Amino acid sequence: MDILATTTPTDDDCGAEVAGLEHSSEAGVQHCLRLLSNAGLRPTRQRLALGQLLFLGGHRHVTAESLYEEAMAANAYLSLATVYNTLNQFTEAGLLRRIAADGIKSFFDTDTSVHPHFYLEGEDMLIDVADGLAFTKVPEALPGHEIARLDVIVHLRRKRMA
Q: Which one, 28, 70, 116, 135, has the greatest CB density within 10 A?
């Protein structure tokens, strides 16, 4: 499930400090700086602000729109386009995993390991499936190709009452 975090970036673009991050320690900020640096990303004010929302609150699934709403609530004034661009940069750098649950909306998962998900139709939620799903055989890749990743999404909907 999503865990909400709050942050407010300063006007400083060095990424070393974020104002209003009362519940995050300096160690948390440094952790975020290391994540970005290790991924080869310059820790801009925008990346640091969104990185703290994403990576200091525990494992979560977000959409660009939900992360934008969190950033606005935290007085991190970023455009929706900046949020989309940053999520795409984080995904390309291997910090996030994109999951297209319904073919229209993408979720971004902070857990980049291979694991299955439940998608709750009508509730627009993505939830990790508890341990226990096993594959006995994965198909062979086509000649000249390799399997880049495996996504398993189990779509659920509420039962209709008779």
A: 70
